[in-house]
Amino acid sequence: MNQTKQVVLNSPLDMHLHFREGVMAQTVIPLSSYSFAGGVVMPNLVPVVNNLERLQGYIKEIKSIIGKDVFEPYMTLFFKEYSYQELEQLKPYILGVKLYPAGVTTNSEDGVAALSKAEATIKHLEELEIPLMIHGETHGFVMDREKLFLPIFEHLAQKFPQLKIIMEHITTADAVSLLNNYEHLYATVTLHHLIITLDDLAGGLLRPHLFCKPIAKRPEDREALVNAAINAHPKLMFGSDSAPHPIDKKEACGCAAGIFTAPIALQALVELFEQHNAIANLQGFVSDNAQRIYNITPPQKSVTLEPVAYKVPAMYGEVVPMFANQELPWSITQVR
Ligand code: NCD
Ligand code: ZN
User: Fold this and answer.
1) Does the pTM exceed 0.90?
2) How far apart, in whole angstroms, are the C-alpha atoms of residue 55 and residue 21?
3) pLDDT (tens digit, 9 = 90+) per residue, 154-165?
4) Closest ligand to 105 CA?
5) Which residues hold their Cβ within 5 A of ligand 2, which is an ion?
6) Distance, CA of 164 to CA of 330 (rounded, Å)
7) DSSP label at residue 248
């Protein structure tokens, strides 16, 4: 029988999420700003966020939607070839720069085609102490894309020893192992990659709402990710990669990649950590590790969860969340 009565999380952080713009932003931002104290906002909009004007406009939109909620949006810039002066000017507004290899995921067409041409900018990031967040996938076979990218992480870690490098949304046991090889290499992991494997997506009837990049992998990969998370591996942070798409883009012939998890993330994480008798490590995984790694102090927010059933809505606006219509055993019962 479950003996845990209450779980209190201090300033939970979501270190990778997609807020979008316009109507979609109005739907999804309040769901994160309610239960999290801060989050890292991805820049893959159309057009991408890669200059001061666009960044300031986006910050303004996000802050107006957050309103009175206690939530710090940690902003990112879409990687392009920036000059030192540009980055110096942009640095006060951002937590890091996000590098997408061209064409590997949603709205990444303007990403990096040749890493050799990116290295001058990466050098500036190192000098300015701006972290580099990377979507680490190649154009190889879909199940191997992350593994094939790992040598690139190693190359960058060796060439830029002072640069904080974050492997975003890791999905493989190999990526977890690589964390131990370089002091300045870190990672985020999503909720869904701690829960599903390729079987859940495509082993039976195809489930488009579980389709994302990187694609869910093998049971042994999930096991390595879960082990690292429940032990609050000091190089690993929670980043939901909550990526909303309207239902007509998901339930379509040509389904958009992205799983929407923001409103159910903390409830499902508590369930997972509870199952592994690891509630004591959840605070490290959802906040303390990120604070230490990025050297940030988020606003104070205390989120209480209790073992009270939570019925996940079928939709939020136009978006179907993970676990739609299902009951989760934990609910958020207080936010202060
Ligand atoms: C993300 C999106 O929709 O913006 N999609 C996804 O499958 N995760 C982009 C990303 O983080 O790869
Ligand atoms: Zn993402």
Assistant:
1) yes
2) 12
3) 999 999 999 999
4) 1
5) 241
6) 35
7) H
